[in-house]
Amino acid sequence: EMEKEIAEQLMKAIAHNSPRLQVLTDVKVAGVTGQVGQLAVRYQIGEEAATYNCDLLLVATGKRPDTSGLNLAAAGVTLGERAAIATDATGRSNVPHIYAVGDVIGGYMLAHTASQQGRVAAANLLGHNSVRYDAAKDCGVTFTRPQCAFVGLSLEQAKAAGIGAVEVKVPMSIDAKAMMTGETDGLIKMVADKVSHRIVGVHFLADHADTLVGEAVLMVSAGLTLEQVAEAIHPHPTQTELFGEMARRLLSRLRRSVKAGG
């Protein structure tokens, strides 16, 4: 999911780049009246009631599992939060011969997530029992401008999972390619285990984050270490150079901490 600082910086970027665009969060819509071309949206924000007049209204409030037509109770299948089918990492439900993948099991409701879960379930049904889906290695992209992307865990998520994690962040403004193209808004954050130096998460607010995240997916999926990424040679001038820069900065900080007894 979108890391907290990334979300905050995105809001600032939107306010700066699109001053006419109004973004309101924690709003409860009370009702909509009128017709296309002349709509009135009544909403509550905190204790204040307000109305917004507009031409069109797009409802994109997210998704939730719909298992209502599956008659799962008759099959004895257990449901979890929000009526999602409860499964293990192989996609198997509490009924051994019933597997489920995709939106009906909750979690990340993304096309690539469902595809991987489907491959995992099929592999296990065929007897390849070592194949697992790991949400801690999943990824996503939000196609804003600049784009947001993530793979793996945030610092807070890593610590909650019992990992002694540390992070490093660099602004896009230090990257030569970003300076050349004028795409200097945003930052990248890298999260790693301070003991093993394994990279467990990378978070982006950057133009072209949708392509940058691919390399980070390989880092997290393969369990690469800071040393491995720091020693990799990235071409100049490209935004991928920032991966090596972050790895070297975090390694330097961890080594200084060890010398200082921390």
TrEMBL record:
UniProt keyword Lipoprotein, yes or no? no
Q: Tell me, what is an example of a GO biological process annotation in this record?
A: 2-oxoglutarate metabolic process
Residues spanning the membrane: none
The segment(s) forming the Pyridine nucleotide-disulphide oxidoreductase dimerisation domain are: 141-246
Q: Name one Pfam family in it.
A: Pyr_redox_2
Q: Which InterPro entries match?
A: Class-I_Pyr_Nuc-Dis_Oxidored, FAD/NAD-bd_sf, FAD/NAD-binding_dom, FAD/NAD-linked_Rdtase_dimer_sf, Pyr_nucl-diS_OxRdtase_dimer
Task: Domain (FAD/NAD(P)-binding): give its ranges.
Answer: 2-118
Q: What Gene Ontology terms describe what this protein does at the molecular function level?
A: dihydrolipoyl dehydrogenase (NADH) activity; flavin adenine dinucleotide binding
Q: Which UniProt keywords apply?
A: FAD, Flavoprotein, NAD, Oxidoreductase, Pyruvate
Q: What cofactor requirement does the entry state?
A: FAD
Name the domain of life: Bacteria
Similarity comment text for this entry: Belongs to the class-I pyridine nucleotide-disulfide oxidoreductase family.
**What's the protein called, per UniProt?**
Pyruvate dehydrogenase
